[in-house]
Fold this sequence. Notes:
Blueprint: H1 8-59, E1 63-69, E2 74-80, E3 92-94, E4 98-101, E5 104-105, E6 108-113, E7 119-120, E8 124-129, E9 132-139, H2 140-143
Antiparallel strand pairs: 1-2, 1-6, 2-3, 4-5, 4-8, 6-7, 8-9
Amino acid sequence: MRSRNFSLLEIMVGIALVLIAAGAIGWKMQDMIVKKRFKGDLERLKSRVLSIQALAVNMQADWNGILKFDGKTWTFEALCLDPPRAKAFSPMTLHVTDVLLDGKKQETYSFQFFSSGEVWPCGTFEFRSRYVEQSEKLDLPAILGRMSGDGMKKLGPVHPDETNVSP
């Protein structure tokens, strides 16, 4: 019995099929990576807002945050307004196309983080990307814990007399 070798044409067809399958998988993976990057950026922004709010309360110093569009990308950076003027974080780049606050689009948004724990502006931010079909919303009152009660979240150290824990 003689073994039959593959012809050059059969080998080329086999390689072409493998490359087509790899391309389709790569295309789907790229879409997934873009969506995860978009959601990850928003989670990092949420974390950064909460961190700066906590810094303002713990340092008893006001902070300013700027979310701005430089023509290509959106960046967020924070600066302490009280001496010494400190930057606690490096500027963060967001992979988003549009940012809206309560439905209104601007090129720059200024955040004020007060030592009392208040943060302004207080509203719903909507983030859009041309690569992701759905927009994502970040509701600042919900993030900052101001959805119930008197509207103020108590931050900072708690005095032992203020706790509801029985000995």
